[in-house]
Amino acid sequence: MNGIQEITKLDMELLEKLADRFSRASISEATRTAYEADWLHFFRFCRQHGMAELPAEPETVVLYLTAMAESQLSISTISRRCTSITAIHRASGFDSPVKTDKVTRVFRGIRRETGKPPNKKKALSWKEVKKIKDLCDSTMIGTRDAAIILLGWTSALRRSELVALNIGDLDISDTGIILTVQRSKTDQDGSGVHVGIPRSIHDPVHCPVVAVENWISRYTKKRIAGQSDDNIPLFAKVGPSGRCRWWSQPEGRLSARTISLIVKRYVSLAGMSPEIYAAHSLRRGLATEAGAVGVPERIISRHTRHRSISVLRGYIEDGTIWHENPLPAIYGSGSSSSSSLE
Question: Most buried of the four, 95, 197, 267, 298, by CB within 10 Å?
Answer without folding.
Answer: 267
